[in-house]
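Sequence in, structure out.
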Amino acid sequence: MFAITGATGKVGSAVARTLLAARQPIRTVVRDARKGEPWSALGAEVTIADSTDVTATTTALSRITGAFVTLPPNFDPSPDFREARRLIEVLHSALRHAQPEKVVVLSTIGADAPQPNLLNQLGLLEHALADLPMPVTFLRAAWFMENAAWDVVPARKDGVIPSYLQPLDKTFPMVSAEDVGRTAAELLLDNWTGHRVIELEGPRRVSPNDIAKAFTNALGGPVKTRIVARDSWDRLFREQGMTNPTPRMQMLDGFNEGWIDFPKGEAESRKGTITIDQAIETLVAETAIEAGSS
């Protein structure tokens, strides 16, 4: 039996689907019983546990062969990351008491960066789980291609997408959430000892111009990319409702300046198979379906 947290998200659902396709028994961990119903219909065991509830989380991660665990994303954290620290404390306690045979932890590129930035939250997670006695894999995923979901509407409406990643011809490590989920499932089926880090990115690195070209292909009309000036970021993020945009801005600086990357670049990272064109085509199709059902 494999337990999967975050099973209603893109990565967690890909983990669950991959394991079910391999005829493995799974336990999906969800906060809302209704969101577990589709998994129950597919034959999965469903357990209700909030990520702030150490007792429920411990129960969810007990009596299993392996666990896939992740932190809920928080793009607007408190300056001291208190929200992430609390969730990490709960997860650490639950894993120490539940003692699954092995654990795959969703982490991120840049988790090892010493500079202050949003991804320090995953660095805190890796550090906290470093004393666990069972085999642990920290899966450091690149920038998610699915972040381009925010660009579907402006690409379709205006033919122009804003880019915080810059310059526009610079290539960045990116990966599809589907590839991340498949890889995590494969790692759960693997056997290893101790703790290890696996780096994962897509088949090739992607520039903002490549994203615009992928939208052009998917929408059948020209799409261009426009740089969002650095001195406007704070104002724009606050207008979007953020109260502490600094960590997000620092993260973007890290990608743009190159200090957020895998230690050896592309040399030792695993490569997924989904291209940016395929990822954008899927996002465009999903948005069309959502619009048609609204």
